[in-house]
Amino acid sequence: MLDPRKLHLLRELARRGTIAAVAEAATFTPSAVSQQLSALEREAGVPLLERTGRTVTLTPAGHLLVEHAHAVLEQLERASAALAAARGGPSGPLRIGAFPTATRVLLPPALVGLTGAHPGLVPMVSEIDPAHVSAALRAGELDVALVHEYDFVPPVTDASIETEPLFSEPMYLTDRASIADARADAWITDRPGTLCHTMAIRACQAAGFEPLVRHHIDDFDTVLAFVAAGQGVALVPHLAAIAPPEGVTLTRLPLSRRTLAAFRRGNGEHPAIRAAIAAFHAAITHLPL
C-alpha cells in the first residue's frame, strides 16, 4: 500500500526539484526526506528516483506516480471534507492567508460575519504574497487563501490547487495620463518576484519601455505616500486608491486585478472552506467597487 504522506513528498520533489527544498518546505531533515522517498520506492517496487551525486531526478515511473498522486491526494481531501460535513457545522481552527489589501479591506468584515454565523470556528490570518500561497496550501500551513491575478501576468497553474473567483477591480496610474507618459519617471513597485512587480514591469514593456524602478514597497498606502512625496509613479488597484493622499491624481487604466479564493483541490466542499468563501462574498457586497 502506497503511503499518502510519502506521495506528498514525491509530488513536492517534482515541483521543487531538490531534496533540500522539499525538506525545508516539510520541516524535515534532508536525510528524513530521502529515507521516506526510498521507502516509497520499495513500496512501489520500481525505481522512482535517479541519483547522480547530489542531484536527484524523477524516473519515468516517478513522473507517472506523481500524476496518480494528484488524484489520490485530491480524493483524500474530498474524504476529509465529507467527514467534516458529517460531523456537523464548521468548527475549529481555520488558517486563512491573504495579501495586504485584502487583509485590510475585505477580511475584517468577512471575519465578523464568519464568526457571527459560526462561533465554533477559530480564524487565524497570515499575510502572504499570492506567489507563495500554493506551497503553503500544499504544506497544510493554510486552509484557504485570498490571492490575486493581474492582466499581463498569467495565473500560476498548480494541479493541486483550486480557485473560486470573488471580484475584479480596475487599476490606476498615479499622476500621469497614460503609462507611456511615465516613460521618463522613477517608478515605485512591489518587490521583485511578486505578481504586483511583474505586472508593473510588463505593463511598461507593453507601452514600449523598461521602467526605472527606484523604490520597492509592498504596502499600497506607503506607495501612495511616496507618490505624494514626489518619489515616483505607481500602478495601484482600486481598493488601495479609494482615498489617495492630497495632490495625488489617479488615471483609470484598461487593466484589472482579480481576487480569488484558493484551496487544496478536493477540499472545496469542506464546511469551513464553504463558510469562509460565503463570508468573503457577503463582505464583497459592501466594498466600494
TrEMBL record:
Recorded hits in InterPro entries, A to Z, give:
LysR_HTH_N, LysR_subst-bd, WH-like_DNA-bd_sf, WH_DNA-bd_sf
Signal peptide span: none
Alphabetical list of PANTHER family matching this protein? LYSR SUBSTRATE-BINDING, TRANSCRIPTIONAL DUAL REGULATOR HCAR-RELATED
Cite the entry's keywords alphabetically.
Answer: DNA-binding, Transcription, Transcription regulation
Which Pfam families does the protein's record reference?
A: HTH_1, LysR_substrate
- Keyword presence, Ligase: no
What family does the Swiss-Prot or TrEMBL record give for this protein?
Belongs to the LysR transcriptional regulatory family.
Taxonomic classification: Bacteria, Bacillati, Actinomycetota, Actinomycetes, Streptosporangiales
Protein name, entry field: LysR family transcriptional regulator
Residues annotated as domain HTH lysR-type? 2-59
- Note the superkingdom of the native organism: Bacteria
Query: Which PROSITE patterns does the entry mention?
Result: HTH_LYSR
